[in-house]
Amino acid sequence: MPTIVKGDTVMVRRGREKGKRGTIKAVFPRANAATVEGINVVKRHTKTGTQQQNMGGAAQTGGILEKEAPLPLSALMYVCVKCNMPARVRYQDGANGIQRVCAKCGEPARESSKGA
Ligand SMILES: [Zn+2]
């Protein structure tokens, strides 16, 4: 079970965006990476017809594209909505099965609504 899912608020622990917070846009479990809204945005010059490695983006037809580059999950830390601080996540049996909760205050994490 992943500790970070789409829709979570996370803090960047290292890299040039260290200390910034954002919302998870997409998680790429096979790459152990995730994109975070507004974090690690890169500009890419794309050419029409060029096959891009498309990680969750829309179809590209060329031009300059700004998009979030994936960050390793190890560089991201879950931020508890109640503590408003980075916190460890633990798992707890809840009404709907195993639930992710904040290890500090026990506040349940918001579950991914789209099953991602
Ligand atoms: Zn908490």
Number of structural units classed as domains: 1
Reported CATH architecture: Roll
CATH class: Mainly Beta
Unique bound compounds = zinc ion
- Tally of extended strands? 9
Regions with pLDDT < 50 over 5+ consecutive residues?
A: none
Strand content: 35-45%
- What is the helix fraction of residues, given as a range? under 10%
Tell me, briefly, the overall form: elongated
Number of helices: 0
Radius of gyration: 16 Å
Taken in chain order, the helices and strands follow as EEEEEEEEE
Strand order of the largest sheet: 6-3-2-1-7
Average residue pLDDT: 85
Biggest sheet overview: 5 strands, antiparallel
Taking the alpha carbons of the first and last residues, their distance comes to: 12 Å
How do the strands and helices of this protein lay out in sequence?
Blueprint lengths: L8 E4 L8 E8 L4 E4 L4 E6 L16 E6 L2 E2 L3 E3 L10 E6 L2 E6 L14
Antiparallel strand pairs: 1-2, 1-7, 2-3, 3-6, 4-5, 8-9
Tell me what you see in this structure.
It is a single chain. The mean pLDDT is 85. The chain has a single domain (9-102), classed as SH3 type barrels (Roll), CATH 2.30.30. The chain has no helices and nine strands. It is mainly β and 116 residues long. The chain starts with 8 loop residues before the first strand and ends in a 14-residue tail after the last strand. Strand 8 (89-94) and strand 9 form a beta hairpin. Zinc ion binds at residues 80, 82-83, 87, 102, 104-105, 107.
